[in-house]
Please model this.
Amino acid sequence: MRAQEHSWINFIIGAVHGIFRCKMESDVTKISPDPLEVVVSALASGAGAMLTHRLPDIIDPPTSPRHRNVGHGVLPIGFASVTAYRAAQSVQNPIARRFLEGAAIGPAGHLLADASTPAGVNLIARGF
Model:
């Protein structure tokens, strides 16, 4: 899959996340979100995901079709993403929080896209 396809897939994943987070928060507060708030939330989360989606390829540069090692492992990337996502919850600014949430799910979106290729992804590292 080409880098540009990865970018747009991750932007869409992040944007959908931002929309659903607005909906979830409005269910808790019982206040309907402003449409502009939903759009800004989607754009911020999508931008965060688009920014960090290349991290697995930075860790494991694509030098060959079998380049996927620890940087493309489901457990290491999953652990890092969950940790970053939980840390983002302490941010008070809602736009910054959405951006950081998107940044946390970006690498996971990369793995999702890679899982659809014939080479797939590893659980931990190559061979595991």
